[in-house]
Amino acid sequence: MESRKRKSELEKYITTLTDPPEKQRKIAEFYNSLRMFYRRRWNAPLKLPHVQGVEVNLYRLYDTVMALGGWQKVASGEKWSDIAEMFGCKDDILCGDHAIKLIYMRYLSKFEQVQTIGDVDDYVDNEMSRNRGRNATSFFATNDCPISRHQPEQPLRDERGQIIIEPDYTRLAKSLLSGLPNEVDFAMNVCMLLSHAGPKQLRVCHAPTLLTLLVALTGVYDNDDKTMSELGTHWKNSTRHNFVRLWVSSGIPSDLLALFLGDDVVSEYVNDEDDQFFIGVSDTYDVQDPRCWRINQITTIIRNLSFEPANRVSIVNTWPVMKFLLMCASCKWSPLYVAAFDALSNLSTDIDLANRSLVHLSQHAVLRIIHDGVFNKDKLKLVRSLEMLTGLCSFEGNESIICEWLNQEIITHIFEVVGVKDIMMCVYTLECLYQISEMGDTACDLISDSPNAIQQLVSMATLEAVSFGPAGLAGMKVVEYQPQFGFTAGGQPHPSSQQAQYMQQRMQPGQGEQSGAQPPPPMTVRQALKNNLVLQQVHREHRDQQQQQSAQQHSGAPVSTPSSPAVTQGVNPNSNYSAKVERRPSNIPVRPVPPPINAGESQLEQLTEKWIKQNCVFEPNMSTARGELYAAYVDDLRNFYHSMSGSLAMFSGVMKNLYPEVNFRMAQNGIMIVAQGIRLVRPHRLAPAASQTATEAHPLMKKMLSDKEGVKDSAEARSV
């Protein structure tokens, strides 16, 4: 601080050599005494102060003040400016004398008092300062330790000495327990953030009481925890939020409410609409209502946490949370039961139906919800109920309870759902039947006893997704990709280029046989996804190009054709800036089908060509969705020709051979591909699988057909 610049270690060493031995001894004794004083007085180590990175020489400061008469004389005589000047603090340093005074007061004044007067009690020192008056100077401004004694917290360790890295959610639990509106809202928002997937996601196993406190804020408590119910009564009186009245108006059956909330709630259960009008029970879900918003927040938090496998067991073992989810799944408000069904479907793989709470306290409310959902007309409830049943069947130990609960009515209804032309319901139903069949002989007997169950499953072995039609594929996306041919950035041939070489060799059978070309290896999932992204980019650029052309046509500007590159105006082609060039063709290329190699492929292509000639007509101004054409083709080949259909690429190639003028392009909506120049001759209706064969085999239908043929022959004879 004297020269206001840092000294190197060499300069400090040289300074110590120039000092006389007696002075060095005094300095060492001073610092030893000061350290012992700090240790005895405050049990703290001495840490020397620094100003602008330069260590303050406390010995010189103490020696200078004592030479001028000590703290009292220097303070009363206002000699701090003289001491600051001795230390190199000129007038250009603002408040330099005040800084010297504060350092001495904090670090050395109490030490001076002990060295000159002796140890004085803190209470006596405060009384002496008070008796001297307001303007009198005390020996020490404060009796607290001038050195911060904050010790770094030692990490928690387990019995093996390992550092515990588990997060601490104690503050969140305290905020929820307080019941204060601001604290509860803040904790709720933090829990909402921690519920999302990520490295900081909340781990329920580290805070087992956190979810119990969350659902307790909605009036749902553990049956054996009377303390929490009393605390909930206090929250109800302070916030004036009657959650019991809200649960009563949510449409939950009265027997479930009596099981979960107690028999007292039955007295508040209202069925008559007139009584609801006079009592004022809320019959609608309103996000502006703080109670509805609080329940919605908690259901969302539990739903998000249920997607993490590490949280599922802890959530299932927390009975108040399961009670809360069962109540939300049984209510009539869609925001609540949608989130509850999602959470229960995720937790179903860890639910033990033999658990005491689920058996005695809820009387198998999970199975009741699944039964109501299977027979519900709501698609979401049906699909989630099937998913819950699938998860329960996969849990080891639930076999006996589920087999006892299942009956022919449920199995028959599940097989009825299989026949619905909806691919999502078909997938979930088949998965559910598969898990039921995995439970043993009893479950398999229930499935086989269902009428026409085996025949229906066998008929679905040849079922194809395209046979469901556009309506049956609602909610699903059929991805079609075209491989890219070329080389990678490293100069290696792209994996899809092997596919192109193989196709070219198949188009020339003679060359392929001589070269001995082998079929390329199947494309990996990463390659397929990459090609799919490339195709989506092509479709996106094609759609943007069409929009740009239509905008230019309306504005009267010249339109650039796809064959000629469009160069951005205002940019010199010879400059270093590269202009954006559109070289993508407007039509999607489709290769004609090469000559077949074996007889099987030849017959299938001939059958495909026959079907196209019978059902398709070339009209340049017409366009038909390629998916619709292919769906009709697959349906006819299965039901009328009793043959397997070809691939979509083969179907498009045969059509291109018959009608070279046909172009496959992306529709204006950018979702599907249409065949420009093709019209379907008749409105095609997809028939159910194997329906015609079963109908014609019926004896009554045979008699009706024979009678029609006889009437037709007699009518022709009369006309002749």
UniProtKB/TrEMBL annotation:
SUPFAM superfamilies membership: ARID-like (SSF46774), ARM repeat (SSF48371)
Region (Disordered): 487-524, 539-596
Protein name, UniProt field: ARID domain-containing protein
Alphabetized UniProt keyword annotations: Chromatin regulator, Nucleus, Transcription, Transcription regulation
RFX-type winged-helix domain: residues covered: 608-682
GO biological process, any: chromatin organization
Compositional bias (Polar residues): 558-578
Natural source organism: Caenorhabditis japonica
Compositionally biased residues, Low complexity: 495-512
Domain called ARID: residue spans: 24-116
Lineage of origin: Eukaryota, Metazoa, Ecdysozoa, Nematoda, Chromadorea
Molecular-function GO terms, alphabetical: DNA binding
InterPro entries named in the record: ARID_dom (IPR001606), ARID_dom_sf (IPR036431), ARM-type_fold (IPR016024), Chromatin_Remodeling_Comp (IPR052406), DNA-bd_RFX (IPR003150)
